[in-house]
Amino acid sequence: MKVVYPGSFDPVTNGHMDIILRAAKIFDEVVVCILRNNSKRYLFDVNERIELLEELLYDYDNVKVVNYSGLLIDFVEENNIDAIIRGIRAISDYETELQYAQMNKFYSKTKVETMFMVAQPEMSYLSSSIVKEIASFGRDVSSLVPENVAKKIKDKFK
């Protein structure tokens, strides 16, 4: 089974990595898809995000990192994806993700399924936005993101 885990990953957090690695144990192929949202201001450009993720996932043969600038459902159909993986941290995530899942299913020719993976309790508060906010005030984020990401974030806020 081939699944996609979409997101902006700006920056990739330990929570993202947890979902990716758990999915890699379950599914034949996991495509980590960096989607571009024109309404967001990014800390890292798309090439930097790809590089950071590839550094972290280099020895996982069943995980690949790509980027896409259109609708997720178009990516799903163009790449013969069987299901969409989404991480859920709280009820508010579920409500938002449920809307996206229903819309993706509505527009999908194949009626693609969305599968929710629940965040580990110790990571349920973690988001890229929180990491960037903390880092912008000069605080250490090395316990929230992988080591290579923490170094790059520190460089960005120097």
Automatic annotation (TrEMBL):
**Which keywords describe this protein according to UniProt?**
ATP-binding, Coenzyme A biosynthesis, Cytoplasm, Magnesium, Nucleotide-binding, Nucleotidyltransferase, Transferase
**Primary location class:** cytoplasm
Cofactor requirements of the protein: Mg(2+)
- Which residues make up the binding site for ATP? 8-9, 16, 87-89, 97, 123-129
Q: Which family does the entry's similarity section mention?
A: Belongs to the bacterial CoaD family.
* Annotated function: Reversibly transfers an adenylyl group from ATP to 4'-phosphopantetheine, yielding dephospho-CoA (dPCoA) and pyrophosphate.
Which protein, by its recorded name, is this? Phosphopantetheine adenylyltransferase
